[in-house]
Every structure is written in structure tokens, then in C-alpha cells.
Specification:
Layout lengths: L24 H29 L8 H5 L1 H11 L2 H9 L4 H14 L2 H18 L15 H14 L2 H5 L12 H11 L2 H18 L8 H14 L5 H8 L17 H10 L2
Helix pairs in contact: 3-5, 4-10, 5-11, 5-13, 6-9, 7-10, 11-12, 11-13
Length: 270
């Protein structure tokens, strides 16, 4: 008789995935990446800490950059009491007024001025600004600037400001006599100081809606307007304030600097 083979009970297989107990390259890869990220983070923190500890970038040393011209400009601004008296009479802080034109004082050269104003002054007096629109004096004002400023001042100024002009009211007629009187005012320090005071007052009227974070912010705006033209509009003046355009040569040279930055640097040291 045949013996029936014993039937073993079925064993149910556990299909759940067991944790691997063998070496897996993927685990090593992810571990290395985590370690690398930690090192990068640590290095970044170290660099940030070092940057925080390092001194901030120093502003340009304009006295060193412009050398003797800078020293001469400082001397000029310090020894013209007649200009200070005019600024005070108009209620304009003297350091604010001098800062507006300080870059022009740097650029000014007695030799260049004598060459530039000699024949051109005669041409302007005889024929008008179309023939001889020259920059003159330490403030480097042009007849065209003075003419425009006179018209705007007479249009915008109140009676008190008009009495501060010091001369008879500006004549509007474009005659030899009037141009000669204007050229005479532009070649005199006191005359240029009055034009500068008029310039500040005109800007006070034109841009009275503008707000300033501080006096230095206002100074940068006024200095830029003096340099590029005060009728450009507020947005354009603010945009051009930071652009390096100032140089001390007869032609554009590099490096150039921001006119407003030089003015503000002088203003901050007064």
C-alpha cells in the first residue's frame, strides 16, 4: 500500500519590502551631497561674516584726485566774503550755495578762462549768444544761462527777491548795452553770486512740490540742475545726478565723476 506523502502546510510569503542590509551606492551619493551642501553653507556663512567684518568701501578722495585744483577751489570759496554776504542776504546757507558751484571751482582755470573769454566776450557783446556763448568766471556761467535765468526770475520772484538783485531790473531787450551789462556781471564774483542766488530762488519756485530726504539730497538735485540745465524736469535731473560726467579737461576725459557727488562731498565736510 502506497504511503501518501505528507502535505506540508502552505507558508504565506510576506510581500512587504524589507529594509536593505546590503551596500547601496545611492545612499552614499545622497550622503555625500548632504555633506557637500553643508560645506557650501558653512563656507557661505564664513564669507558673509568676513564681509560684515571688513570695512565698507570708502568714497572717492576728491582732494587727492584733483590735487592742487581742489585746494585752489577751497581757498577761493574761503576768501570771498562778498559772496557770503549776498547768500546770507537771500537767506541761503553759504555752504549750500558754495557746494552747488564747487565742482566748477575745481574745473576753473585762469589760463583757459582768459583764452576762452577774450574774443568770445567781444562776439557775445556785439552779436549775441549765437556767436559767443562762453563759460566765464569761477562759477562757469554762460550768457545763455544768465539770460534764461533773468527771464525766469522776473517771472517767478516776489517783490522782496526783486529788491535783492542789486541792479536795476534786468532789461528784456537784446541790445549791445544789455549784453555788455550782462557780461560785466558775469565777470564779477559778486555778480555771479547774485546769479547763483537767483538760481536757487528760481528752483525753489519751480520745484516746490519736490520732497527731500535731507539737505544733502536737495543739494544733489540743485547741483545737478546747475550742471545740466534746470529745465530738464525733476525726473531727468534725479536720473542724471548719479551719472559720472564731470571732468576737468577741455574735452571729455576718463575717468569722469558725478558732479552731484563732488558737491555733496564738499557740503558734508563744511
Amino acid at each position: 500500500m502506497l504511503r501518501r506523502a505528507a502535505v506540508r502546510p502552505a507558508v504565506r510569503k510576506d510581500r512587504r519590502r524589507k529594509a536593505p542590509v546590503f551596500f547601496c551606492p545611492g545612499y552614499l551619493y545622497h550622503g555625500l551631497m548632504n555633506a557637500k551642501s553643508a560645506l557650501i553653507l558653512a563656507a557661505g556663512l564664513a564669507v558673509s561674516f568676513a564681509a560684515a567684518q571688513s570695512p565698507s568701501v570708502e568714497p572717492p578722495d576728491y582732494a587727492k584726485i584733483f590735487g592742487r585744483a581742489y585746494a585752489t577751489a577751497l581757498d577761493f570759496a574761503g576768501r570771498h566774503a562778498e559772496a557770503d554776504e549776498i547768500f546770507r542776504a537771500w537767506g541761503i546757507p553759504t555752504d549750500f550755495a558754495w557746494a552747488i558751484v564747487f565742482p566748477e571751482l575745481i574745473r576753473y582755470s585762469a589760463l583757459a578762462d582768459a583764452i576762452e573769454t577774450g574774443n568770445l566776450k567781444v562776439l557775445y557783446v556785439q552779436f549775441g549768444r549765437g556767436y559767443g556763448d562762453f563759460s566765464v568766471g569761477h562759477f562757469q556761467m554762460k550768457p545763455s544761462f544768465a539770460e534764461t535765468l533773468e527771464r525766469d526770475f522776473l517771472r517767478l520772484a516776489d517783490e522782496n527777491d526783486r529788491t535783492r538783485i542789486g541792479d536795476a531790473p534786468f532789461a528784456r531787450a537784446d541790445t549791445v548795452e544789455n549784453r555788455q551789462a550782462r557780461a560785466r556781471r558775469l565777470t564779477d564774483v559778486a555778480g555771479q553770486a547774485r546769479y547763483l542766488a537767483m538760481f536757487v530762488r528760481v528752483l525753489d519756485k519751480l520745484y516746490f512740490r519736490e520732497t527731500w530726504t535731507d539737505d544733502a539730497d536737495k543739494l544733489r538735485f540743485y547741483a545737478t540742475a546747475y550742471n545740466i540745465g534746470y529745465k530738464r524736469g525733476a525726473a531727468q535731473i534725479r536720473k542724471l545726478a548719479a551719472i559720472p560726467r564731470f571732468h576737468t579737461g577741455l574735452i571729455i576725459t576718463k575717468p569722469a565723476y558725478s558732479y552731484a557727488a563732488i558737491a555733496a562731498d564738499f557740503f558734508g565736510k563744511r
